Amino acid sequence: MMDKRILTGEQIIVEVGNLKIGGNHPPIYIAGPCSVESKEQIMETAFQLKEIGVDVLRGGVFKPRTSPYAFQGLGIEGLEYLKEAGKATGLPIITELMDEKYMDVVAEHADIIQIGSRNMFNYSFLKTMGRLDKPILLKRGMCATIEEWVLAAEYIVAHGNKNVILCERGIRSYDHYTRNTLDLAAVPIMQKETGLPVIVDPSHGTGIRELVKPMSKAALACGANGLMIEVHPNPPCALSDGHQSLTFEEYEQVRRDK
């Protein structure tokens, strides 16, 4: 690992409202649907998750899909629904930003801005995110090495924003049984290398609903600072990632058995 770095491993705590993320603070729980599909869907999800116990409400409104014919999200309309659901429940919200042209409106609405795996290597985008006074969640690129992930975080902090949360979401390998290979060794490595909080996304990390619960427990056991899990009122009818989304009952089991 190169020596000239801002992130030297000194512990950094990221604050989101009253939440303190990282260090010895309790793990945070981020949950919600892959995509905001309607006002009714995100409202139902928000109130159910609030009752179960969640710290941050997630929901995709700009969806980076492999197929151009797949559901691409509701855009600004979905962002407004997500913000309304967060306000109604008192939950901070997180959503992915894909394009700089929507930066101002997403920054106005969201409490945390997510940089997805596809944009981890978009260095001009990372520089722009570094100029924002807003917590950033940086997902690991689907083929990114540890060093590449560290340096992507460096792009953000070097341009002024140290409020970065890292997210291990699995990497591609030769094995196709799971959607990705969840690299839990990266959690303590990245904490040591950067000092930043590291959370785990077992939904994308496995792509299999039945694996989300055991890998959530494994993530917390290895010291992850939180979990990001996809939850949907009716996974078989979800417009995206239904196969890896949990029902409310299944998510409640994850929270209860942590």
UniProtKB/TrEMBL annotation:
<keyword id="KW-0808">Transferase</keyword>
<dbReference type="GO" id="GO:0009073">
    <property type="term" value="P:aromatic amino acid family biosynthetic process"/>
</dbReference>
<dbReference type="Pfam" id="PF00793">
    <property type="entry name" value="DAHP_synth_1"/>
</dbReference>
<dbReference type="GO" id="GO:0016740">
    <property type="term" value="F:transferase activity"/>
</dbReference>
<dbReference type="InterPro" id="IPR006218">
    <property type="entry name" value="DAHP1/KDSA"/>
</dbReference>
<feature type="domain" description="DAHP synthetase I/KDSA">
    <location>
        <begin position="16"/>
        <end position="254"/>
    </location>
</feature>
<dbReference type="InterPro" id="IPR052899">
    <property type="entry name" value="Class-I_DAHP_synthase"/>
</dbReference>
<dbReference type="InterPro" id="IPR006268">
    <property type="entry name" value="DAHP_syn_2"/>
</dbReference>
<dbReference type="GO" id="GO:0016832">
    <property type="term" value="F:aldehyde-lyase activity"/>
</dbReference>
<dbReference type="InterPro" id="IPR013785">
    <property type="entry name" value="Aldolase_TIM"/>
</dbReference>
<protein>
    <submittedName>
        <fullName>Phospho-2-dehydro-3-deoxyheptonate aldolase</fullName>
    </submittedName>
</protein>
